Fold this sequence. Notes:
The complex is a heterodimer of chains A (374) and B (158).
Chain A: H1 12-29, H2 33-58, H3 63-94, H4 96-119, H5 123-128, H6 130-164, H7 166-186, H8 191-233, H9 238-248, H10 254-270, H11 275-299, H12 309-349, H13 352-370
Helix pairs in contact in A: 1-12, 2-3, 2-7, 2-8, 3-7, 4-6, 4-10, 8-9, 8-11, 8-12, 9-10, 10-11
Chain B: H1 9-18, H2 27-34, E1 38-42, E2 47-49, E3 57-63, E4 66-71, E5 76-82, E6 87-88, E7 102-105, E8 109-115, H3 116-125, H4 127-154
Antiparallel strand pairs in B: 1-8, 2-7, 3-6, 3-8, 4-5, 4-7
Helix pairs in contact in B: 1-2, 3-4
Amino acid sequence: MTPRPAHRGAGPLAWCAILLVTTLALYLFQHVLWLVLPFLFGLIAYYCLYPVMQRLVFAGFSQTQATNLTVGVFALLLCIATALMLPRFAAQVVGIQDTGQRYLQGGLTLLDDTLRALESRSRLMRDAHVADTVSAHIAEAGDRFAREELPERVLGLAAWMPSFLLGPFLAYFFLRDGARFQRYLARAVPNAFFERTLHLLYEVDRTTRAYFQGLIKLTVIDATFLAFGLWLIGLSSPLTLGVLTAVLAWVPYIGSILGCAVVVMVAATDFPGTPAIAYGAVGLFVLVRLLDDFIFMPMTIGRSLKMHPLVTVLMIFLGGAVAGVAGLLLALPLLGVVMVIGETVSRVASDPRLRARHAHARALLQAAVTRDLV
Amino acid sequence: MRFFGRDDLSADLQPLRKIRLFSTLTARELKVVLALRHERHYLAGEIVFDEGDEGQAIYAIADGEVEILRNDGERTQRLALLGPGEIFGELALLDQAPRAAQARAGSDCRLVVFFRADFMGLLETHPKTASKIALSLARHLGARLRQANTGARQDGHL
């Protein structure tokens, strides 16, 4: 048997390179977000539609027929949903400034009430005028955000809508040509590295599929639980709020806090003077998060990315610092992809036997093409 | 439109038809396999895989010859010389066990490569096709076992 070095993961240098490349990619991506986000949504749509397409293939359709049918039905449903939602969304956009300020005011009133209740019980807080100071600062910042930034951001999101149409289009080509593209890429891999590299690519595909399908399942479960809980509490639009907060949770850490803040603001506005409802919403949020961490997440996403928690947290902070909210959203999926590519290159290129086999193959090729030149 | 080198079906199906593992498949089933296979070219003397490598794929010879070799530490022994239509590395389709021998191109050759992950996918989407391949593989392994038994009898081990 040929002596082989033991299989090892990426070393510290490779890990530094992985983090550096991910950070650089995040920095670059924030400048082409109009393309990156539709690509990400296309990828999510691809992994969600893939099982449907496979079922059609199993039923006897060809790959192309199954892809056409799957994406066709998906696009039709998307069009119907857009046609139904657009008038409502347009009506909301007109009054977005007033709505934003109303909900913000509701949230501030709740905060002020809570702080004053605490002040009445704590002399230290009362002497420090915590309620007045905090309320004044938050009111000023919130008012500026609602007046200046919120309408601009919502209109910016509306301007982005056409580029999101790229999502289903990309998903179609991923479904139809994904396997062919993989084979096309595989041709570029030299014979010596072929089997090992392809195996790792299959692993990447399997892991990414498990991650995105798990993410969608988790979002559906979260949205259902939150909507049901909010409906029980008596909040308005529980389904919309449930879906919104479940999707916001895609942005690690900050997304959950933001989702909770939105629900609390809605609760405080819908039921002014009844803080128990808002506290109930916070309690529901904490409960769903706990269920997520201990039951739903292991059931759906599991440990599909197999990353160390320290690296995960570090990368999320780096992503946020380099590319803002987009960086927070993209940090983990991008790190997952760069990590697997980095580990593959590191493992394959550092295997002396594989390098020797590749050198041998090159020498054979050189001899073959120069045979008649001697 | 030829996109990412779209397959020329009639030309690409020909080598697959000659491979024993796929000999029982219909033209329609072969098209399914065609979409999953990789094709590699090796020069005479080039190593396809080493003994001890983690096996992930089965290889079939479309053109040329492949030697199956085993090194006992002192000398290299040739176990078999395989020609067009024959398969090797077949145990990789069943498990991830290390390769039992080295495979080296005996002449310039063209190989068809089929990964276990794709075979597992085929079991999900096209169970009938996958069953036919599995049956051919079982027959092939049975023939190998009988051959080994006969060899052992002749050597007086049985």
